[in-house]
Amino acid sequence: MTTENPTTKKAGTEVDLVRQLKESLEERGYVVSEEVPSHGRARTDLVLWDGEILIGVEAKLSDWGRVIGQAALNRQCVDQSYLAMWSSAISDVILAEAARFGIGVMSLGDGGAFVLLQPTHGGPIPELRQKLIGALESGLR
Amino acid sequence: MRHLLAYGNSDQASFRNPVVRDCFDFMTVPGTIASYYSDATAAFVLTADIPYLIDPRTPLFQDTIHSPRASHYSLAEWLDIDLEGAVYAAGNRSVADFPPTFYTNHQLERTVHKVLDLQFSYGGRSVEIQTKLDRYRSLMNEALGVDEEEDDDEQTVRPPDFALAPYFMSASLTDPWWDVNLRIWNLSVNHTRGTEISPVVAVTNAGLLQTSMNQVPAGLADTQFFWISDFDERRVDREQLADLAAAVSSDEDHRWVNLYGGFFSIALGSIGLWGFSNGLGYSESRAWPQLEATGGAPPRYYIPRLHTFTSVANAQLLYQEEPWFFEPITQQTTSQPIPTLSYHELKRDFALARQWEIDQTQGVQAQAIAQMLEQERARYLSVEPQLPARLRLDTRFLERWADVLSGY
Question: Would you say B61 and B86 are in contact if contact means Cβ atoms under 8 Å apart?
């Protein structure tokens, strides 16, 4: 995933965060889908699919405990699972916790999306991964 | 310990599943379903060849009904209650009031006799619904792999195993609704089949249960039921659990059944509780007056060695950390990832877990069950640090259960 230098905080709602993140990722050529049904009743904020690697991204303004939980569960259905927050909201504690559960961390600042921590490959459940890809490819989301 | 499993609209396929059918003793049919889907439910129940009972659900007609639905009207007919008249009396505001004064002696006599006669004669409904009966029998035989020609029809006239008297929720022994219950029981005692009628004690708190149970008059069936409103065994405090335990251990003369219970009720089998009821993957507690507001089982997973539900994804995460919590089920089924289980497979696994819980505690003393719970809690605490903080389960109820049980 492309990296750029993170800059300062951007204020806004979680909707702003997801929208700007999506735009930033699309500018770099990713096909990004929003609110994709992923496992159980859950929907993943953003899913990136390039025909080979399936990436899930959960975005939150501040509740990092919750977003770590969501991203950890996403590992059951995507190859790489990220959490995304405004760059100013990310702390060493978040990075350490994310690393512990194999979750990547993406920050969003004035320079766009920036990967602070690479995820480990999740080894998703094949049926769930395939179902998610099927939903993306059929445009059902 | 007898397990009564409540039948819901979405449960037909599960109740035809031979695995599920081996996991309970009686099917509890809600009066709302029995009256609203009258022929279809009768056909299903009478061809299921499963012991059953019908819960008259009379608290639906206690105090105020807002915007009565079609199912209210059909149940009202079963109870010989003039719902249309009550709506009219309330000024046609889509509201119907049923204060204690509505239940005059005359009204109660009609209600008691109507609903009990319907229960006693339920097996005879097979004559009226022969076509539906044939269709449901065919579906059941197909599910169970029974040859149509080998099937005999004798079971289709099976009456309910228990006939439940009407009942209403009481907040105290001075509550006017308590007086309504007393009058129902007196009418039941004087019914020609009084000794076959099971009273239902419904109270708003566990502290009231023992005194209320003691007030049930002699001359009714030995099998008696209770419901404590909103008694979520995993959520209530130690004192309420202790009150329930004290109540069920105090009466050795009757067979008490908890209408809404989970594993704590199973454990109470060791100190005298005869049976408990719940839904297939839900309805281990129920609050009055929200009685009408429950739907089907949510798609979630029951962890047998933690005696609690969680989301399928969270269950899978815990399974990856410590499969031991799931072994009672995974040793009986294919090792399919939990999030890939279908809705009916989730229900099947719940039924298997429940049966395993009953088997594990059968003939076991309360203190030994308490030790088992303490071990399960300790094992969870050893795994918990491996899980994201927000995905950790609150298992403190295991300690509360163990604490109460260890006193017996």
Answer: no
